Amino acid sequence: MRYATACLILVLVGGGLGACKSPPTSFYTLSPDRALASSGSTHPIAVVIGPVSIPEIVDRPQIVTRLGDHEVEVNEFARWAQPLNGDIGRVIAADLAVLLNSPQVSVFDLAQEPPGVWRVRIDVMRFESAPGRDVTVDVLWAVRPPEKARIVTGRSVAHEAVSGPGFEPLVAAHDRALASVSRDIAAALQASSAQ
């Protein structure tokens, strides 16, 4: 009888512990905007993106979402698949490659730059996510032409609506916001290279 009772207790405890299992962790990456179109430029330019800085509040593997004016949530089970600053740089580089019709846009930092390389510095001031509502990306950027010519600076603030619940639509809204930033940077690069 004691053996049967002990077995029953073990089964109940084991079943109770199984019910406490954590939800699986999901990993997300930003993606270049597939809706972007080339400017048709016939003289592709070489561009290196970096450095990219981001606010400390979002500089973590977990996706941080805004709940109110003074409250955020760090989502333990929704994470970035790679560091966010590197992912932002990669996406802006891919967007610029399309917009500038140039295969020579990279985040790879060369110790010795070949002549004619443009540099783009990205300082993300805000990277906010409000689930089911919208995202905001606020970026200060600086374009440095080759041969230490005059630096062109700008600020891009992009707001994009989130198309539905969950993290997939939230990340897609960030993709569109970064494409808007990329369009501003591409326009500055084209205007400067035409001078």
Number of helices: 3
Mean pLDDT: 87
Indicate the CATH architecture.
3-Layer(aba) Sandwich
Return the domain count: 1
User: What share of the residues lie within helices?
Assistant: 25-40%
**Strand pairing plus helix content: what structural class?**
alpha/beta
Strand content: 25-35%
The fold-level CATH name is Rossmann fold
SSE run:
HEEEEHEEEEH
* Alpha-carbon Rg, integer: 23 Å
Global geometry: elongated
Distance between the termini: 92 Å
The CATH superfamily is: ABC-type transport auxiliary lipoprotein component
* Number of DSSP-assigned strands: 8
Please describe the topology of this protein:
Blueprint: H1 2-19, E1 26-28, E2 46-53, E3 62-68, E4 71-80, H2 84-99, E5 105-106, E6 117-130, E7 134-144, E8 152-161, H3 167-194
Parallel strand pairs: 1-4, 2-5, 2-6
Antiparallel strand pairs: 3-4, 6-7, 7-8
Helix pairs in contact: 2-3
What does this structure look like?
The protein is of the alpha/beta class and 195 residues long. It has a single domain (26-194), classed as ABC-type transport auxiliary lipoprotein component (Rossmann fold), CATH 3.40.50.10610. It contains three helices and eight strands; from the N terminus they run αββββαββββα. The protein has helices at residues 2-19, 84-99, 167-194, and strands at residues 26-28, 46-53, 62-68, 71-80, 105-106, 117-130, 134-144, 152-161. The strands form two sheets. A five-stranded mixed β-sheet has the order 5-2-6-7-8, with helices on one face. The chain has a three-stranded mixed β-sheet with strand order 1-4-3, with helices on one face. The longest helix is centred in the last third of the chain and has 28 residues, at 167-194. The termini are far apart. The mean pLDDT is 87.
